[in-house]
Amino acid sequence: MKNLFALALFLIMVALPSMAQTSTNLHAFGGYQYFRDGFSGGENLNGIEGAFAVDVVKHLNITADIGTASKKINSGGVSETDRITTYTFGPSFFVNSHARVNPFAHVLIGGATLSASASVPGASASVSQNALAIKMGGGADLRITRPISVRLLQLDWNIFHANNATAKDEVSLATGVVVNF
Length: 181
What we know:
Elements: H1 2-19, E1 26-37, E2 43-57, E3 60-75, E4 78-94, E5 101-120, E6 123-143, E7 148-162, E8 165-180
Antiparallel strand pairs: 1-2, 1-8, 2-3, 3-4, 4-5, 5-6, 6-7, 7-8
């Protein structure tokens, strides 16, 4: 994780001189997230996702994305909760941030916390696992006014790796509002 942080810091420092050559645009996204944990026989989780992006050069920005989705089941006195939280960052490529429709693609790398808990009256148990997280995907934003856009859809393929095991069949969808500064 230290190496990942050092890499992010290096990328930001390298990009700073080029930011002086362009008008800095900041983008803040917040909205709903649907997460499919496994294709066949998997679980549907619902949650929120947020992201901040800074334009570095034309058609490229650095994005930090945080999302969490969970599923809670109450049945016969047993309460079970599954949760996936991701925190990733990396480059995003976009067509034109000033266009009416702005498609984008990104590859984000970071971490994830996968957790599950169960409780019955008088007893409870929980387990969590940290993992390397990779999000690859993209989407499109529709500009409503200069400062406000709607994220029509963001589709990401998520890969989690922990303890010599890799989960590759994780998909997330997000939609919400983007504020452009």
